[in-house]
Write a structure and sequence with these properties.
alpha/beta; four-stranded mixed beta sheet; 18% strand
């Protein structure tokens, strides 16, 4: 609540009770239901490619382009936690500040058509690909023409060749390629790829400014006593990180040991 900023929640199903609770915590918060034109685009995409049905909400980030009139617009996925300041990213003069994805870290690039990691040097590829979980836009990028271009790219014909499970990340890489400044992984630490991040950069989750629970398992959905299937590294690490950050917040507030 002490942050001098407007909070906008893009959603398609928040209950009145949830809206009231969030409003009580953040007086400057507003709620933006998904627009009809985006909803219709997603309906067509999911109708022709049902595999996107469970991932359609990831495309709601397109509505970030409706946040006009600001110097900076920060988009955040709903599965991230801040544990430090991101002021260096906010103070950059670059049009878009973001963190590289795994294809960027291992320097393979991505096929421009399939978005798979490029395995052949002759394949046209995007080299500075980024994760869309945290993006800092200059205000002049958040305009109707960019939103229209993102909407236009949600075209079932264009997505028939996509070979990965990415969604909005593909859209933003297509639209803003060449405008991005890639900053270190500590600004969007992908816990689902923590081993590769540490191998490529040496960055540790404990030192990250932002933790991104980008794996399939979310700690707020994991049982308090993980069963045998949750003991794998991919399932248990996010829960450990969640608990570590929670305990640190309690200690800072003076409510814990």
């Amino acid at each position: 609540p002490e942050i001098a900023a407007d909070f906008v929640v893009i959603h398609d199903d928040l209950s009145p009770r949830s809206i009231n609770r969030l409003t009580a915590l953040f007086p400057t918060i507003t709620f933006r239901p998904v627009s009809r034109d985006l909803r219709e685009r997603l309906d067509r995409l999911c109708s022709e490619h049902p595999e996107f049905t469970s991932r359609r909400r990831r495309f709601l980030s397109v509505e970030t382009m409706l946040s006009t009139g600001y110097d900076k617009v920060l988009f955040c996925d709903s599965d991230i936690i801040f544990q430090g300041s991101i002021d260096p990213a906010l103070q950059s003069i670059s049009p878009l500040v973001c963190c590289g994805d795994i294809a960027f870290l291992d320097k393979t690039g991505r096929d421009t058509v399939t978005f798979s990691k490029a395995t052949h040097s002759a394949v046209p590829r995007l080299m500075k690909t980024f994760n869309a979980g945290l993006m800092v836009f200059n205000g002049d990028l958040c305009i109707e023409s960019n939103r229209a271009a993102l909407l236009s790219a949600i075209n079932p014909k264009r997505w028939k060749d996509i070979a990965t499970k990415h969604t909005d990340q593909i859209l933003f890489n297509w639209q803003f390629n060449g405008l991005q400044e890639i900053v270190g992984p500590e600004f969007n630490y992908l816990l689902g790829h923590r081993d590769q991040i540490r191998r490529c950069t040496g960055a540790r989750a404990e030192e990250a400014r932002v933790l991104h629970f980008n794996g399939p398992e979310k700690p707020w959905l994991v049982p308090s006593s993980p069963g045998p299937t949750r003991q794998s590294r991919s399932g248990f690490d996010p829960l450990q990180e969640w608990r570590r950050v929670y305990d640190a917040a309690i200690r800072r507030s003076g409510e814990g040991p």
